[in-house]
């Protein structure tokens, strides 16, 4: 059984504490107090002996906030050290809701050419309790900043979630627990760079949403951007998702990073709409966020809007993901765990 209190599912808490009636008070204590580094010594509704034994055999994950930067658009970027490993958590305020963007690895196990995290290299997989902890911190930060409490969680921070499947699935099981953290499974989105063999296991073991970083419309182009496209090319990947979602009710969120002059032509837009024809999906177009030292550019406003019109015209539900927190390097692809604005 895991040691971090924030990684325990309700069923495990019941087993550890010896009674179903102790689960809700334990969840409240764990998810209200873990960010303070320790849990209360007594909890209403849990007898002294089982709680003492529980505290002795479990730990609260330790962390240090080494940087907190607030963008002029209100996005908050936290750089945490978990042990000595850097991780980033982003709090994104919106008109309707606040979203917590969290990390599942320190660094990343993949080598996407356009992403700052990949240049940091891979440090380690996070434990489920460390993934959950970031949502608790995001709640606390949102509250302190007078924002709505985060109701949406995206695993789009550092790391490749499907390379850390066990801990990610466990973290989702914890995040949806009632009464706390109480995040709706459909309000959790896990974004993958396309680890084909883990897609079905993820969809069958979790009720969360899947997002796929597609980013190109031919294998040749995708290979130049996402090296593991060699192992899992575009068509088998989309076919796997289509088949897995049959009779499922969920859609996949397809993410398409637009790199000016690289993958933003009218021909790309047409190829993308035909690739997506049989895939139950929504599409997010993500204009490139600059990463120092990389040779890419944003798409021009004209090519972005032309691209979006082709897809919308083909009946694909398309949204442009406007950058948030760029000035503090908090936007998609800019997370490299460094302190201070880049
Ligand atoms: N490893 C996961 C999560 C990555 S972050 C994945 O690959 O899906 C979320 C999104 O930001 C991904 O679609 C990722 O490809 C995209 N991204 C990476 N670098 C970017 C950049 N420089 N500008 C804009 N989006 C970027």
Topology record:
Layout: H1 10-17, H2 23-33, H3 48-57, E1 64-70, E2 76-82, E3 85-93, E4 98-101, E5 105-107, H4 116-120, E6 122-125, H5 128-144, E7 150-155, H6 165-175, E8 188-192, H7 196-205, E9 209-213, H8 219-225, H9 234-245, E10 252-258, H10 266-275, E11 281-287, H11 301-313, E12 317-320
Parallel strand pairs: 4-7, 7-8, 8-9, 9-10, 10-11, 11-12
Antiparallel strand pairs: 1-2, 2-3, 3-4, 5-6
Helix pairs in contact: 1-2, 5-6, 7-9, 10-11
Bound molecules: S-adenosyl-L-homocysteine (SAH).
3D architecture notes:
By secondary structure, the chain is α/β, with parallel strands linked by helices. It has two domains: 3-59, no CATH class; 63-328, TIM Barrel, CATH 3.20.20. It has helices at residues 10-17, 23-33, 48-57, 116-120, 128-144, 165-175, 196-205, 219-225, 234-245, 266-275, 301-313; strands spanning 64-70, 76-82, 85-93, 98-101, 105-107, 122-125, 150-155, 188-192, 209-213, 252-258, 281-287, 317-320. The strands form two sheets. It has a ten-stranded mixed β-sheet, with helices on one face. A two-stranded antiparallel sheet has the order 5-6. Strand 10, helix 10 (266-275) and strand 11 form a beta-alpha-beta unit. Helix 1 crosses helix 2, helix 5 packs across helix 6 (165-175) and helix 10 packs parallel to helix 11 (301-313). Bound molecules: S-adenosyl-L-homocysteine.
């Amino acid at each position: 059984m895991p040691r971090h209190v924030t990684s325990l599912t309700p069923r495990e808490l019941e087993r550890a504490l010896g009674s179903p009636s102790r689960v809700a008070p334990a969840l409240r204590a764990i998810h209200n107090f873990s960010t303070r580094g320790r849990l209360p010594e007594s909890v209403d509704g849990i007898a002294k002996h089982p709680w003492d034994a529980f505290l002795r055999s479990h730990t609260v994950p330790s962390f240090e906030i080494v940087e907190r930067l607030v963008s002029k658009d209100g996005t908050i970027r936290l750089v945490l050290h978990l042990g000595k490993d850097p991780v980033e958590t982003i709090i994104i305020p919106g008109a309707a809701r606040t979203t917590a963007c969290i990390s599942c690895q320190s660094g990343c196990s993949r080598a996407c050419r356009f992403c700052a995290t990949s240049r940091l290299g891979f440090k380690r997989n996070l434990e489920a309790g460390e993934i959950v902890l970031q949502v608790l911190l995001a709640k606390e930060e949102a509250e302190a900043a007078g924002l709505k409490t985060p109701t949406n969680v995206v695993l789009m921070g550092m790391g490749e979630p499907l390379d850390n499947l066990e801990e990610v699935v466990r973290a989702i099981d914890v995040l949806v627990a009632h009464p706390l953290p109480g995040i709706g499974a459909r309000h959790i989105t896990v974004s993958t760079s396309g680890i084909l063999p883990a897609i079905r296991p993820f969809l069958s073991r979790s009720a969360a949403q899947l997002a796929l970083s597609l980013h190109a419309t031919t294998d040749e182009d995708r290979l130049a951007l996402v090296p593991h496209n060699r192992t899992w090319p575009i068509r088998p990947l989309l076919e796997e998702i289509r088949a897995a979602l049959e009779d499922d009710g969920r859609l996949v969120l397809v993410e398409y990073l637009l790199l000016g002059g690289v993958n933003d032509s009218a021909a790309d837009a047409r190829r993308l709409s035909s690739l997506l024809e049989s895939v139950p999906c929504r599409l997010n177009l993500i204009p490139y966020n600059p990463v120092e030292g990389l040779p890419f550019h944003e798409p021009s406003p004209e090519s972005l809007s032309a691209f979006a019109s082709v897809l919308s015209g083909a009946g694909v539900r398309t949204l442009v993901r406007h950058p948030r927190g760029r000035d503090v390097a908090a936007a998609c692809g800019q997370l490299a765990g460094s302190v201070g604005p880049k």
